[in-house]
Amino acid sequence: MNRGSGESRGGANLPALRGYNEALLLDLLRGAGPVGLGRTELAARTGLTPQAVSKITARLGADGLVAEAGRAASTGGKPSTLLRLMPDARHAVGVHLDRDGFRAVRVDLAGRVVAESMGPLDFAAGPEAAVEVVVRAVARVGDPARPPLLGVGLVAPGPLDHRAGVMGRVTGFPSWKGFPLRGVLEGRLGLPVLLDKDTNAGAAAAAGAWLRAAWPDADVGRDADAGRGADVGRGAVAGPDAGTDVDVGGPRTCVYLHVGTGLGAGLWLAGGVYRGARSAAGEFGHQVLLLDGPPCRCGARGCVEVLCLEAVARGDLPEAARILGEGAANLVALLDVDRVLLGGRVVAAAPEVFVAGVRAVLAARALDPARPVVALAGAGVAEGAAELVLASLFGRAGG
To answer: pLDDT digits over 13-39, tens only?
Structure first.
């Protein structure tokens, strides 16, 4: 639901729901951007009483989260005071661990990147080595002189147990199975840590892109490592100059398909990330397309992942895009989503090829004239990891 528009969520005038109502107002103010909203409009959109809105916004103002943004245009009476979110009141960190590299970002409450760091990572070296990489990365982007950190969102290849914060048997890397990554990092960092799959972060980033679009980046001073390596963890963020669509619409039902060192999917359904009963949803790369096809590292044969990445390795990107499209068409037929968003380093290297290829397959296999939109994801996976941390502050289901 586009909460920056006239649509609304219902509030509750009960003391027990104080935290929920605060999150509800913060979410509306985030969607409104720097212009802000008046208390009367906040009350109308939420169903809260004007008195409740005044009390809640006073508390948020005392915490530095909300401030006045001037006066609304007069409609004949006294102009109302507008309130706006203060994006720099708190920050969050997102870290994307890939099989051969990492990217970390610090974002403000609007989701804008204010610092980033990236570099190589050897996933085969095991979880203990990765912990040291994450600790150093958070130290680089988490400047103590900056606003307080709400927490760290850490995302990695699955499978993993999101609820327990424990890694599963990542394909090709058995030493990770059972490692309590969240607990170890919380002990080292002294901050709340959220562990999730990289593809779920991609879905959260795509769904939150419209919120970031409401906030101009002109006033954000970005810090970055002077000698950072390749952007191994960033999703496809090519803009209009790439000649390809970038999705910046509001949260809808969508699948985010990530093509990098592996293939995976993030599912945004019913207003939030869908993880499944065992945090195992989204293993998109290991659906079998070709019976008795080439062996995949998961142990099966003819998986989307092995077929697609083999095409990439031999330089046949149109064929890779066609294979990705066939897998995407299966998901669309199963879930009836209205967005298919593409990201990951392979897509970022040839965005037009992949968007056109996936779009062509979906058109050919469509059973309904209302086909889903195919576009690039509007943000990277590390940003999505930070968005998962922010979700709890704004009462969203992403985290």
So the answer is: 444 346 889 999 999 999 899 999 999
